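Entry:
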Amino acid sequence: MKQLTLTDAEHSGRKKTTRREECLKSMDVIIPWEAWIEMIRPHYPSGKRGRPVRGIETMLRMYLLQIWFNLSDVGVEDAIYDSYAMKSFMRLDFYQEQVPDATTLLKFRHLLEKHQIGEKIFSDLKERLDKAGLLMHGGSIVDATIIHAPSSTKNAKGERDAEMHQVKKGNQWYFGMKVHARVDAGTGFVHTITGTAANVHDSQQISELIRKDDEVVYGDSGYLGAPEQDAIKSNESFQK
C-alpha cells in the first residue's frame, strides 16, 4: 500500500478535482497494465549490466502521458514535476525516486518503436473494446492531416528524409508526411492509422482504411474519387 505524503494529505482536502485528475484516474483503472508490461518485458534491459534501469510500468506510464498530452521528452518530465495529477498517475514518491529523465524516456520510446510494441498495444486495445461491444461495425469516418517538418531538416548525409515530400495545400506549401486515419463512426475511436509522404492524395489510402463490413464511409471532398481506385474496384468485399 502506498504511503501518503504531506502533499497527498494536503491535496486530499481540496473541494474540487480537476478534469485532468479525473481522466488519469479513469485511465489508471481501464488500462490492462500487466498485459502491456508483459509485451515489453522480453525486450527490456535486465539491468544486470550497466546502470540500474527504471521499472517498465514507470516508463510505460510516462510514455502514455507524453502521448495523451502531446509533450516532448523534456516537456513531459517537467510536467510531471509540476502536476500533482501526473505525479499521482506515475505513482512516484519523490522521497525515494525522481522522474525518469528525458534521455531515459527517449531510449524507452525507441525500444517500443524497434519492436513495434506500440502497434501491439494498439491492436490489444481494439480487441478489448470490440469484445466489450464498444466498437460499432458498419460505419467509418476517414480523414488525413499533414505533419509539417522544417524543410531545412536533413540527415547526416545532408539529404532530406526520403519518406517526406513537399505539397501545396491552398496557398501554403508544406514539407513532411501525411497521416491517414479511420475513425469508428459510432464511438469516435481511431482504429486504423497509415502514414505516407505529404504529396500522396487522401483517396489513394482509402483501401487501407475502410473495413470489409463497412456499409457507409464518411469523408470530405478529398475522397470523391475513392470508388474508382483499382484497389476498391478489384476487391469484391468493397462492392456493396
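Strands lie at 139-148, 165-169, 172-184, 190-197, 216-218.
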